[in-house]
Amino acid sequence: MPPIGAQGLNLGLRDAAWLADLVGEARARGEDPGGADVLEAYDRCRRGDVASRTAVVDALNRSLLVDLLPIDLARGAGLAALKAVGPLRRLFMREGMAPSGRLPTLMRPLGQVAKPSAT
Questions:
Q1: What SS3 string covers 101-115?
Q2: What's the helix, strand, coil split of the chain in %, to 5?
Q3: Is 30 contained in some domain?
């Protein structure tokens, strides 16, 4: 993944945190942490996040490589909007680091102790 917005790093951190949750849950149930059920749960947890981040980063990366004025203008306008509109910039930053929806235990604020089930 191109290093746009550190999304490869953010995905990797979420991958590791979800894996820690799922392996811990499997061990607590006395199951094989490398078993098919755990791997399928991991795939379900990660598929949407990975696909959406990959698509957005790929589109932005391709927009940088293409030499078409309308695409340059659209990209420039989008980046200018992110720079000028604080709430929009904060939304993009927040979603880039910790997307809406379920988060693994290691990535939740300290006050949230209950673990969501991955299944």
A1: CCCCHHHCCCCCCCC
A2: 70, 0, 30
A3: yes
What token pair was written down for 57? Answer: 């980063």
Angle at 74 between CA 47 and CA 3, to 5 degrees: 45
Round to whole Å and give the CA distance between 53 and 84. 23
Do the domain assignments include residue 15? Answer: yes
Cα→Cα distances 25→3, 15, 34, 60, 105, Å: 32, 15, 12, 37, 11
Residue 55 belongs to some domain of the structure = yes
- Tell me which DSSP letter residue 30 carries: T
Give the range of the structural domain holding residue 61, as residue numbers without chain letter: 7-107
- Is pTM beyond 0.85? Reply is no
List, in order, residues 6 or more apart from 2 with CB less than 8 Å away: 8, 57, 61
Task: State the Cα–Cα distance between residues 56 and 82, nearest whole angstrom.
Answer: 15
If one counts the domains in the chain, the total is: 1
Whether 66 is covered by a domain: the verdict is: yes
| Residue-wise pLDDT tens digits, 21-38 | 999 999 999 999 999 999
